[in-house]
Design brief:
Mean pLDDT: 81
CATH architecture: Orthogonal Bundle
Number of domains: 1
CATH superfamily: Ribonuclease III domain
CATH topology: Ribonuclease iii, N-terminal Endonuclease Domain, Chain A
């Protein structure tokens, strides 16, 4: 994914698959762990808006439903498995687990980006430029195709298998009420540099000292976090950074950074 400085990063082989429709469906079935038979739904799920036509709609509507299905599955899992978590904690864990950064990373690792249908207009010189959100949307639209054919049970089985390690990571004892761990996980998913914490100052008498800590991620600084000791101040600085980055990375739309994506196979024209 793109860094906070707006630089472009490459994701290899987007739209590069050149096999038959049957081979495309077979490969997607293996990824999902479910035998798909409705190619029409899958074709729509894999169609980027650049490749849509009057007869071949894009995956935008399926992404809408897939987002809702994903949210339900993850919310239900967290609600069921963590009865001690307050609403705010459930929301915080879910925000990290289903963030665009995590979904886009999983999309690349599963190879779903290779199966996309991309329009010729954005595939020049072996590369494609797409908004960062496209891979996350692709994950959700393919999940929608699975849900439409296999129902909620099949969709739940895939999500819990695929995102289970992420969810377990952010709900581990190291993460609960640990904003530093949450921040570390989020920036790693966004391919950012590891957070660096610096004490800006110590104030007050020894029996009532106040620590001020800033956290730096790349070229950006967040804070200060203020606490009675260094550890508490670092946690509060991380909480500030986490809130700001989640708000930023979850609201990018028209101003989204671009991915610079090589496409191995080009049309003959």
């Amino acid at each position: 994914m793109s860094g906070s400085d707006g630089s472009l990063q490459s994701v290899p082989d987007a739209g590069a698959f050149n096999g038959s429709d049957a081979e495309r469906m077979e490969r997607c079935s293996r990824v999902l762990g479910f035998r798909l038979t409705n190619f029409e739904n899958l074709r729509i799920a894999l169609t980027h808006s650049s490749a849509k036509s009057d007869d071949n709609p894009s995956n935008e509507r399926m992404e809408f439903l897939g987002d809702a299905v994903l949210g339900l599955i993850v919310s239900e899992k967290l609600f069921r498995e963590h009865p001690d978590y307050p609403e705010g904690e459930l929301t915080r864990v879910k925000s990290v687990a289903v963030s665009r950064e995590v979904l886009a990373q999983r999309c690349r690792e599963l190879g779903l980006h290779e199966l996309m249908y991309l329009g010729k207009g954005i595939r020049r010189d072996g590369r494609a430029k797409l908004p960062v959100s496209v891979l996350a949307n692709l994950y959700e639209s393919v999940l929608c195709a699975l849900y439409m054919e296999g129902g909620l049970g099949a969709a739940r089985e895939f999500v819990e298998r695929d995102l289970g390690p992420v969810i377990r990571s952010v709900t581990s004892h190291q993460f609960q009420q640990n904003y530093k761990s949450a921040l570390q996980h989020l920036v790693q998913g966004h391919n950012e540099r590891a957070p660096i914490y610096r004490v800006q100052g110590e104030f007050g008498p020894d029996h009532s000292k106040e620590f001020h800590v800033m956290v730096k991620i790349g070229e950006r600084a967040f804070g200060p976090g203020i606490g009675r000791n260094k550890k508490e101040a670092e946690q509060r600085a991380a909480k500030i950074a986490l809130a700001e980055l989640l708000a930023q990375w979850e609201t990018f739309e028209e101003g989204d950074d671009l991915l610079d994506i090589p496409t191995e196979f080009e049309d003959d024209e």
